[in-house]
Amino acid sequence: MKKKIACLHAHYSNINYIEIALSAYNVELSHFVDPGLMYRVMNDTDFTESDAQRKVKEQVGWVVQSGVDAVLITCTNYIALLGELAANVPIIKMDEPYFEAICEIDQPQTIVFTNPDTVSGTMDRLQQFAKTHQKKLDIEVKVIENTFELIMSGKKDEYQREVYKFLKKYQQRIVSVAQLSMVGAAQQVERETSRTIINPLNALVTSIVKQLNLQAKE
Q1: pLDDT tens, position by position, 69-118
Q2: Quick one: which of 7, 33, 31, 11 has its CA closest to 151?
Q3: Into which CATH architecture does domain 97-200 fall?
C-alpha cells in the first residue's frame, strides 16, 4: 500500500529533488508550493515574525487535513517559523536528519546558505539540537550573497552556477549546504572533485524511509 506524503515547499525548484529522491519507493507525493510567504518575509517590513509564524501554522494545518500519512516541510525558514505543532500525522522537518549528520562531525566545519533570512532560525535550531544531544560544534557560516534572489525569480540555472562556483573554490573546511535548492550544485562539485559535501537530501531520505517504513518498488 502506498504511503501518501504531502510536501510543503517555498519554491517549485524543490519538487524535483524530492520526486527523484523517493522515486524508488512505494509512495504517493503531493506538493504544495507558496513562494509568496518568503517574498513577504524578505521584502515587507510591516509583515512581522508573528504574522509569518501564524501563516506557516495555518498552511501546515491545512495540508495535514488533506488525507495524507505524513507532511514533509522542505523550506528551512518555514521550519524555523513553525516551531512545534501538534498534528495527527508525522510532520517531517527536512533539517533534523541533516542536523544529525552535522552533529556526527567532530572537526571544524562550514555550513553554506544562499538565503540570509534562513541563517538565524536554522542555526538556532541546530544549536538547540546539538545541546539536546550533548554535542559540541565548531561551525562557521557562509552566505553566498545576492544569490537567493535568482532562484526566487525563476533563474535556476544562474543560481546553480553561482552555488557551484562558490563550492568549487571553497576548500578550507568540511562543507555542507543547508538548503535543498543547493543540492544539485553540491552534487556536481562532488562528482568533479571526489570531495564530500554534506546535504540535507541524503539524510532526509534515510529518515523518511525508516520513519514511515516505506517499501521499495518491486
Answers
A1: 999 998 878 888 877 766 788 889 888 899 999 999 999 999 999 999 88
A2: 11
A3: 3-Layer(aba) Sandwich (3.40)
